[in-house]
Amino acid sequence: MIQRGALTGFLSGSIMGLAMKFLEAISSKKVYVLLLNVDFIPYIDSRDLPELAEFSLHVLMAILIGIIFAWLMERNADSKNSPYFWSFLLTLPTVFLYFPLTILATKDTPAVNDPISFSLWTVGHILFAILLPIFYSPRQK
């Protein structure tokens, strides 16, 4: 379960991260910068971290969410709820992280009240929620 969840999170988080980079490139809204931003974490100076290290921290969080998703899928295998129900339920709180992350950021990130940036952030996280069930491979019986 852990390996399947980790792979699911890795693939979903990596694609989401690349999609957020693309959305930032075409819109000039710093949603990718916000996604990778860790400057609010004590003892981490993100000014000194290369992009790959920040991206790896994002992917690590996605892996943890993927493992939780796999656990939910196996625990609720007989449930009538679809994998997308669990995926969206698990991902929904991450959409609203936009607000505290923009407030806590010291880097140049989108404004907390920027509706376009929030929409792009939401689209990226919806993509993640869609990808989790696509990449999840249930245990063979």
From TrEMBL:
The chain crosses the membrane at residues 55-72, 84-106, 118-136. Keywords: Membrane, Transmembrane, Transmembrane helix. This is DUF1440 domain-containing protein. It comes from Sutcliffiella tianshenii. The lineage of its organism: Bacteria, Bacillati, Bacillota, Bacilli, Bacillales.
